[in-house]
Amino acid sequence: MNNNLNEYRKFLSNDIIKTCIRMQKDGINQGTSGNVSVRFENGMLITPSSMPYDIMKAEDIVFVDSNGNAESGKRPSSEWRFHLSILNDNPDFNCVIHSHSIYSSIVSMMGVDYIPAIHYMIAIAGGKIIPCAEYATYGTEELCNNISKVMKGYKACIIKNHGLVISDSNIEKAYGVLVEVENIAREFVELSKIGKYTVLPDEEMDIILKKFGNYGLNVQK
Predict the structure, then answer these.
(1) What is the pLDDT of residues 108-144, one digit of tens each?
(2) CA-to-CA distance for 57 and 23, rounded, in angstroms?
């Protein structure tokens, strides 16, 4: 690997670590839960398995190639399969963030198949709803397949009895979607306590989605 590529890998690895620490500070993740990946070369860089974020260094970030082979001597996050699958299936996505954020995780336990269009910001996830993927044991091919089924055309999905998955063109944009979806999940949880809410009609969401064509953080990172 040449020096420029080494420097770029180090830059991306540090960006991953900063995002992990940011999730902790923002109360989105706790302990070693959650994981982050970014596209790199013919594969991805991803957080290692079971390592506290505050001691993580750039050299701890693991490269996994497009066939799922991890670099020698390193153990990637147990969820590497669905990270790689999302990146392989979606050439416009360059980052995947998985979190156990509180409100999205609560929604994942409510037995719903999606969060409906309770607010127009639902469109930030790419569609008229935020879908929920069926539960499967973490780290399995089955879970990977369940996520792939519902995430086509979306930037976000909730995994039942588990947590949240976000993807976007770069790490900053993905984090922005993560924050918005977690906020929508909080609204949905609070509305569910009341027991009634209104849902925006499909026609309005069509308008919103068209307006959201270029919506998102104005970053080129």
Answers:
(1) 999 999 999 999 999 999 999 999 999 999 999 999 9
(2) 16
Mean pLDDT across the stretch 73-100? 96
Catalytic positions, please? 79
CA 212 – CA 221 distance, rounded (Å)? 20
Distance CA 99, CA 116 (A): 21
Give the length of the chain.
Answer: 221
Q: What angle do CA 187, 98, 212 make, to 5 degrees?
A: 55
pLDDT for 31: 76
Measured between alpha carbons, how far is 121 from 137 in angstroms, rounded to an integer? 30
CA-nearest of 82, 85, 34 to 56 is: 34
* 221 pLDDT above the threshold of 80: no
Angle at 31 between CA 104 and CA 60, to 5 degrees: 110
3-state secondary structure 2-51: CHHHHHHHHHHHHHHHHHHHHHHHCCCCCCCCCEEEEEECCEEEECECCC
State pLDDT tens for residues 160-211. Answer: 999 999 999 999 999 999 999 999 999 999 999 999 999 999 999 999 999 8
- 84 pLDDT more than 90: yes
Rounded CA-CA distance 181/166 in Å is: 9
